[in-house]
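Before surveying the methods themselves, let us examine one representative protein, written as a sequence plus integers encoding its fold.
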Amino acid sequence: MRKLGFAAAGAFLLVIAEIVVFVLVAHAIGWWVAVLAGVATTILGGVLLKREGVRAWQRLRTAVNEGRPPGGDAGTGVAGLAAALLLLAPGFITDTVGLLLLIPPVRTFTGRRIRQATESRISAAAAGDLFGPRIVKATRADNGTVPTQPGSGEVLQGEVIEGDVIDPQHRHHTP
């Protein structure tokens, strides 16, 4: 319930900030130009919403048809949909954030953050099904015992599959 209160307060503050920014921009460039810019970004948001939705759906279907985990492209797809929704919403602040999300490096960064946030909120098994195996660093003590201090053993690069660390240099294939 507390998070809902923060979200409502944040939305209220955003509306106030959008009104203030709109008045300032309208005063600087003229009321009709500001209204026209707002309408133009809303139309752009509608067009992008359709395009990004279709692209996200196509990437999902392609991943499923190829047998890949579908979540790999989901983060950037969600970032694209968020950009479209922010452009669709009236206001110059949301338009600016939406336009920033259309820049490929910003979109990729945001997509990775969305993936990380999703992985931290779901079970490891569900994350593996959605995003594929995780790449992790594991530490092994030199004498075969469990290390007592973090970083006191050899660092291994590998994938975690079903909770086991698989050392890529020492993979054992069993028939």
Summary: The beta strands are 134-140, 154-161, 164-166. The chain has two domains: 2-124, 133-175. Residues 31-66 form the longest helix (36 residues).
